[in-house]
Amino acid sequence: MLSRVGPWKKFSPAPPENNSLAGINPYIKQTEVALPTRPYRITFLSRETGESRVIEIDPVRLPFQRTGRPGSILDIALGHDIEMEHTCGGVCACATCHSIVRSGLASCNEATEDEEDQLEEAPGLTIQSRLSCQCVPDGSMDVVVEIPAWNRNAVKETPH
Ligand code: FES
């Protein structure tokens, strides 16, 4: 005979801090990330166009928008109208936001195994490669990021 246990409680997870899931993939392990506490400078270089842009980061203004981890390279880029692909929405589930941190990599959080797994799919991988949505500089030094020419959304470019 089956005994009834109930009534069932409705599952309602606590809302995340600041009510945002930006940059968070609930299916992978999350790590702590140090956000900057002082201003720093980040330079974006476009391999495709040869252009560069320098942005002064004021920590009190983070995050700049809701895609990617708060304070991440992707957060900064999109918040300043710098085009950068982000097919999975900035949750470490693709490799389209691949960028190369040419300088200042030591000030960024360490890549997780999940990030490294995704990066293996990125063309032109280098030892300085990161997923822009997961890479968060701590502001202890200036950072130079190269946006590779191959950083394109293959899904969008496939003809239908
Ligand atoms: S946008 Fe998909 S991993 Fe960064």
Q: Provide the structure class.
A: alpha+beta
- Count of extended strands: 5
Approximate shape: globular
Low-confidence stretches: 1-16, 153-160
Quote the average pLDDT: 84
SSE pattern, N- to C-terminal? EEHEHEEH
Strand order of the largest sheet: 2-1-5-3-4
Radius of gyration, in angstroms, nearest whole number: 18 Å
* Domain tally: 1
In helices, the fraction of residues equals 10-25%
What characterizes the major β-sheet? 5 strands, mixed
The end-to-end span amounts to: 56 Å
Small molecules bound in the structure, each named once: FE2/S2 (inorganic) cluster
Describe the structure.
Helices cover 11% and strands 17% of the residues. The chain has 160 residues and is α+β, with helices and mostly antiparallel strands. It has one domain (35-152): Ubiquitin-like (UB roll), CATH 3.10.20. The protein has a 5-stranded mixed sheet with strand order 2-1-5-3-4. Strand 1 and strand 2 (52-57) form a beta hairpin. It is globular, with a radius of gyration of 18 Å. The termini are far apart. The model is unreliable at 1-16 and 153-160 (pLDDT under 50).
